[in-house]
Design goal:
This protein is mainly α. The chain has one domain. The protein is 75% helix and 0% strand. It is built from twelve helices and no strands. It is globular. The relative contact order is 0.20.
Length: 283
């Protein structure tokens, strides 16, 4: 019995790694895979299952942090990643700065502190997640349609503070479960005249500190529900999310410039239909 429960933890880690940074909503997939199929609450308990999902989310966050480690080290001027400037140049080359990330983090950070408890209490329901999935898909389609006739910024190092702030605002909107943080911020980046790759880069770089802070806060709040007997589940789920997250982020960044957002939006709409049919018709 324990073996099959560990397999469930592995599957949930894989799902988390595949969906956390793709613009498809990890929340929606967790509803489909866990709430409707694996039911981690049955072998972990409701509160411990919630903590488990936070822990495996950290696996995906650390994967993104490792992929973009050179950018973070560059922002802090650490070692060989510190920016260098050729002698004789009148102006410094453009680069992404820590202040860009801080500006982008402000909206979600402030709203998260103010409304985290309310969001957790009132918005984590199936109907609200389905609404978020659908509206997020529509937003992605609009962004893709708009970007066809716009000349876009082609490097994340060229992003302006205004672009960073507006993208940060959309990250705050993505606090609505199902809307998808990456879906909303990449779409907003495209609408702010970034190309798809640059918008994705900034989205992932900015998401790491935001998600790390949010996950740490959630773990602290639910610390009393961590059961030492569940540590093997946490470790397996975390490692699966890290490895799969690393692979999926790398693959996504290679594909996004060519496939754009509409295929992901269509997939989200199909997912809404599948979840609605399974939950309201079959179950």
């Amino acid at each position: 019995m324990l073996f099959f429960e560990l397999i469930k933890a592995l599957i949930l880690g894989i799902v988390e790694g595949l969906t956390e940074f793709a613009p498809v909503s990890s929340t929606g997939h967790m509803i489909l895979v866990d709430d409707m199929w694996l039911k981690s609450t049955e072998f972990l308990g409701s509160e411990s299952a919630f903590t488990f999902k936070i822990v495996i989310q950290l696996g995906s966050v650390f994967a993104a942090a490792w992929i973009f480690r050179h950018k973070y080290l560059e922002m802090f001027h650490i070692g060989k990643y510190a920016p260098t400037h050729q002698a004789g140049l009148r102006s410094k080359p453009k680069r992404l700065k820590l202040t860009h990330i801080l500006v982008g983090m402000i909206p979600a950070g402030v709203l998260g502190l103010l409304f985290d408890d309310l969001i957790e209490k009132y918005l984590f329901s199936l109907p609200t997640v389905l609404i978020g999935l659908f509206l997020g898909a529509v937003y992605m389609i609009i962004a893709d349609r708009y970007s066809r006739n716009v000349r876009n910024t082609v490097s994340v190092d060229e992003i302006s503070y205004f672009q960073a702030f507006v993208i940060g605002l959309s990250q705050a909107v993505a606090m609505w479960p199902g809307f998808s943080r990456s879906g909303s911020t990449i779409s907003t980046g495209v609408l702010m005249k970034l190309d798809h790759k640059s918008a994705s880069d900034f989205t992932f770089i900015m998401a790491v500190p935001v998600m790390l802070a949010a996950s740490t806060l959630s773990i602290v709040k639910h610390y009393d529900y961590i059961d030492l007997s569940h540590i093997p589940f946490y470790i397996i789920g975390f490692l699966a999310a890290f490895v799969v997250g690393f692979i999926s982020i790398k693959l996504f960044l290679k594909l996004i410039q060519n496939v754009k957002l509409i295929p992901f939006a269509i997939y989200r709409i199909v997912l809404v239909v599948v979840i609605a049919v399974v939950y309201y018709v079959i179950l």
